[in-house]
What does this fold into?
Amino acid sequence: MAGVNIRQNCLEIHRDNQEGQYRFETFLRRGDTVCPLARPDHVIAVADLLP
It folds into this structure.
């Protein structure tokens, strides 16, 4: 799951949900990039996803 956190001005990524707890969480900010799991060859600038 991923979502834009407007208050913190970041992209939150949560993965590997086990019993209601995510085992992997990361917070990306402007200047960072992210690659979708399904398309790792596609690089997306986090700044393009933030308001």
User: Anything to note?
Assistant: The chain has a mean pLDDT of 95.
